[in-house]
Design brief:
Elements lengths: L2 E5 L2 E4 L4 E8 L7 E7 L6 E7 L4 E4 L7 E6 L4 E6 L8 E9 L2 E4 L3 E6 L1
Parallel strand pairs: 2-11
Antiparallel strand pairs: 1-3, 3-8, 4-5, 4-9, 5-6, 7-8, 9-10, 9-11
Length: about 120
């Protein structure tokens, strides 16, 4: 059973930083693309960043380029999202996801709140 468990969300003032973690378990993710998405109240879920399990950066949303960094530690089966220079508009529930072999898995989400 695939499990994606996010952690690291919280409250931070604008300009601050947070690091989100996603612990993946239940299968081998070598051919998977891992990603972070977010959903703000009243808005659709949007993809923020994506990385192949082998470490190739695939995508950053324009709104986070230069501020967010996605990475993974294959030994720990964990994907990270380092978020710097946070803005109030980054406030959302952040979800980890894994795409591969025709399947998509989602974590339960972690709340990030950025105050001005």
């Amino acid at each position: 059973q695939v499990q994606l468990v996010e952690s690291g969300g919280g409250w931070v003032q604008a300009g601050g930083s947070l690091r989100l973690s996603c612990a993946a378990s239940g299968r081998t993710f070598g051919n998977y693309v891992m990603g972070w998405s977010r959903q703000a109240p009243g808005k659709e879920r949007e993809s923020v960043a994506r990385i192949s399990w082998r470490g190739a950066i695939i995508y950053y949303a324009d709104s986070v380029k230069g501020r967010f960094t996605i990475s993974r530690d294959s030994a720990k089966n964990t994907v990270y999202l380092q978020m710097n220079s946070l803005k109030p508009e980054d406030t959302a529930v952040y979800y980890c996801n894994a795409d591969g072999q025709g399947e998509t898995y989602w974590g339960q989400g972690t709340q990030v709140t950025v105050s001005s």
